[in-house]
């Protein structure tokens, strides 16, 4: 009995000892008077996703790295200053080619980095090491940012805390997990969690973004507290959201191996770390270990100065319908991003009239301080001769993939000054909402310039006295999609019964479902059922559609079915067609509808058989692994058979991200009076004058509405004064996908999708 218990206790004791040994290592450190010689290699491979069989392009760098203990804390020996110096830096390149060849091209570091930068590589750096945690990084003022980033990456290999949590290294502030076993350590870094490092830029619209799937693991080998080797492997798959076959696979591998241990310099004496640093030659100063992206340049784009010299002899002609214009647009965007203001201004001033609109699109897309500043100086909103260029600039700002505060300021300042053409002011107000909305999606809603722009739009709506002016500000808020303006939109939707109400409700339709709360639904029910006022049919239809698509209740759907009998035949026919369209789709509301229609008092011929020509059609245009493209056509007729409204919509859904590619709405009212008063005016339309117009949304941006005619006299003048040319709302080169991602894994690389 005793021997069995004794054996169990011994076994448990050995088990505990084994577990302790497995999960515990001494914190890494260096011993004084010892020079450690490491061999450092880092290589990158990049290949196309669509061509996995093609050999990847490889870039490899290697160097000798010497480290020694400079100083340690007498009361805490684990706190140290470590001196690091790189020698014999070499670069090799293996370009993409046939697998039968294997020729490595040795690149001259002096030619690749420049003579000065190559000299800076050999300059030593110092890092503050505290029980494996890199707490400080020190360099001299002579080092360049390019070589400093390489050293940041090297020092990041010494970041070894042995416990999971948050670490700061060249990649930023990242979440890491450790797996410790005897003398080996595996560190896994969650690159998606990294913050603090500048990552470049991307498009605001998620459908135009890039998917990034990274992995990062480091394998450490220790001999007591001495770091023997470390291997870090990273893999990045970067692809377009809309088409995942367009992209790249990027892998990087770093390796640091201890080669020799030799007698080295003695440690320095000093009470504090700062005291030691102040005595060193070279004036070392603290710098951030987080990598900073380098300024990228277009390798194949000519400089703007070169173009200006050549353009004096021949003028470039741009035809937007040709694919060549897209390539030239890309070239100019890259060229203007690195040009000076005086050169851009000179280009705008000396170019032909056909070329200037193209350059305005490119300058806004470039989003550089120089390009925006030159546009601000070139454009004079008080000059009527520049009206087409002013609208070109405003629409380019609305379509900017990632607008800046600087761009918003230019738009606001231009609108505050003298504006010669009312249509330009109208476009500017609508565009301001689009720019504000994108800035808020970029988490810049709290900036004072954005707050001022939001307040300007709200105050402008409150101060509007004319219906047309109210509609313009409501369209601006529709572009902005600010949740705090929903109560304001509801107020205008309910208090007005005509076009203002319809515009406010269409603005509400653009919000995601989670913003259609119970309070919002109460207002929508009052509008649809006309509890307080009699509303135009388009307002009732918009209210019903929001209720049907925003997680409808059985109560809402039942009441909408019951209301069909009290509506005119065309409105009820269109609403019933919308319901049937939802039943044929995969929308979540479909289950609610099917449950309600089990009631035979509702689902019968008398209620669900409606006369009229109004209808809704929808279907699938295209589908792939990455996106689904759909179309819909909505037609609403008057009781006399004239077209009241047509709505064409083309939408894209990519990886859960919706995008309204295009929506065109053509509306007409009061046309019965042109037929000699045939047919009575319909409910809510009693006092509407003869009018026809068009409204369009392009890539989620509401454009300025176009009025074909308003009033009988205007119609007559348009008929006799019509030139026969089509009306163009917007004609532009637009940069939709603009993604620059910088990963600072010891040698910096970037992936640009312009």
Automatic annotation (TrEMBL):
One of its GO terms (cellular component) is endoplasmic reticulum. Keywords: Disulfide bond, Endoplasmic reticulum, Lipid transport, Signal, Transport. This is Vitellogenin domain-containing protein. GO terms for biological process: lipoprotein metabolic process. Residues 30-657 form the Vitellogenin domain. The keyword Disulfide bond applies. Residues 1-23 form the signal peptide. SMART domains: LPD_N. Its main location: endoplasmic reticulum. It comes from Pleurodeles waltl (Iberian ribbed newt). GO terms for molecular function: lipid binding; lipid transfer activity; phospholipid transporter activity. The keyword Methyltransferase does not apply. It is found in: Endoplasmic reticulum.
């Amino acid at each position: 009995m005793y021997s069995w218990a004794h054996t169990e206790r011994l076994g448990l004791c050995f088990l505990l000892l084994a577990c302790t040994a497995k999960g515990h290592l001494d914190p890494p450190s260096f011993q004084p008077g010892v020079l450690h010689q490491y061999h450092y290699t880092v290589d990158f491979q990049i290949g196309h996703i669509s061509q996995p069989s093609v050999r990847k392009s490889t870039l490899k760098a290697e160097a000798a790295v010497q480290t020694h203990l400079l100083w340690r804390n007498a009361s805490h020996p684990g706190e140290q200053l470590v001196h690091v110096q790189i020698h014999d830096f070499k670069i090799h390149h293996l370009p993409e080619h046939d697998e039968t060849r294997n020729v490595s091209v040795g690149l001259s570091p002096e030619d690749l980095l420049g003579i000065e930068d190559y000299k800076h590589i050999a300059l030593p750096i110092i890092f503050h090491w505290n029980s494996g945690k890199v707490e400080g990084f020190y360099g001299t003022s002579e080092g360049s940012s390019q070589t400093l980033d390489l050293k940041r990456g090297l020092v990041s290999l010494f970041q070894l805390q042995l416990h999971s949590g948050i670490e700061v290294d060249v990649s930023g502030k990242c979440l890491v997990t450790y797996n410790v076993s005897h003398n080996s350590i595996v560190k896994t870094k969650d690159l998606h969690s990294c913050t603090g490092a500048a990552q470049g830029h991307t498009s605001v619209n998620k459908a135009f973004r890039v998917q990034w799937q990274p992995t990062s693991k480091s394998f450490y080998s220790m001999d007591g507290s001495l770091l023997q080797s470390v291997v870090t492997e990273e893999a990045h798959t970067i692809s377009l959201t809309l088409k995942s076959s367009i992209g790249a696979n990027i892998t990087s591998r770093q390796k640091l191996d201890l080669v020799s241990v030799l007698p080295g310099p003695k440690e320095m004496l000093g009470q504090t770390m700062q005291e030691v640093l102040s005595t060193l030659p070279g004036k070392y100063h603290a710098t951030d270990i987080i990598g900073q992206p380098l300024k990228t340049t277009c390798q194949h784009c000519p400089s703007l100065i070169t173009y200006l010299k050549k353009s004096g002899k021949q003028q470039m002609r741009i035809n937007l319908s040709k694919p060549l214009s897209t390539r030239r647009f890309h070239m100019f965007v890259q060229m203007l991003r690195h040009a000076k203001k005086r050169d851009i201004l000179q280009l705008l001033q000396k170019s032909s009239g056909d070329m200037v609109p193209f350059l305005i699109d490119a300058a806004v897309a470039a989003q550089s301080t120089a390009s925006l500043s030159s546009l601000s100086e070139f454009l004079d909103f008080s000059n009527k001769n520049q009206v087409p260029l002013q609208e070109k600039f405003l629409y380019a700002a609305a379509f900017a993939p990632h607008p800046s505060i600087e761009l918003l300021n230019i738009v606001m300042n231009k609108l505050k000054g003298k504006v010669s053409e009312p249509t330009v002011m109208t476009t500017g107000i609508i565009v301001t909402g689009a720019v504000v909305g994108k800035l808020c999606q970029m988490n810049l809603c709290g900036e004072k310039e954005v707050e001022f722009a939001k307040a300007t739009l709200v105050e402008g709506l409150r101060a509007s006295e004319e219906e047309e002016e109210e509609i313009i500000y409501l369209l601006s808020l529709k572009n902005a999609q600010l949740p705090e303006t929903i109560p304001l939109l509801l107020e205008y939707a309910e208090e007005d019964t005509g076009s203002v109400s319809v515009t406010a409700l269409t603005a509400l339709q653009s919000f995601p479902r989670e913003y259609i709360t119970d309070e919002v639904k109460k207002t929508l029910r009052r509008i649809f059922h006309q509890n307080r006022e009699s509303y135009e049919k388009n307002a009732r239809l918009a209210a019903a559609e929001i209720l049907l698509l925003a997680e409808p209740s059985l109560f809402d759907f039942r009441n909408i079915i019951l209301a069909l009998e009290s509506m005119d035949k065309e409105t009820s026919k269109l609403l019933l067609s919308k319901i049937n369209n939802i039943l044929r789709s995969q929308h979540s509301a479909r289950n609610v509808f099917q449950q309600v229609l089990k009631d035979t008092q509702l689902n019968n011929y008398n209620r669900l058989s409606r006369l009229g020509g109004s209808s809704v059609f929808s279907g699938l245009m295209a589908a792939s692994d990455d996106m689904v493209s759909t179309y819909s056509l909505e037609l609403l007729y008057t009781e006399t058979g004239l077209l009241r409204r047509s709505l064409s919509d083309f939408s894209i859904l990519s990886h859960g991200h919706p995008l309204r590619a295009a929506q065109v709405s053509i509306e007409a009212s009061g046309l019965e009076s042109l037929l000699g008063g045939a047919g009575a005016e319909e409910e809510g339309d009693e006092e509407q004058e003869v009018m026809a117009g068009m409204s369009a949304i392009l890539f989620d941006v509401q454009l300025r509405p176009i009025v074909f005619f308003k009033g009988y006299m205007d119609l007559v003048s348009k008929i006799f004064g019509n030139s026969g040319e089509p009306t163009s709302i917007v004609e532009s080169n637009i940069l939709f996908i603009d993604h620059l991602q910088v990963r600072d894994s010891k040698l910096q690389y970037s992936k640009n999708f312009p």
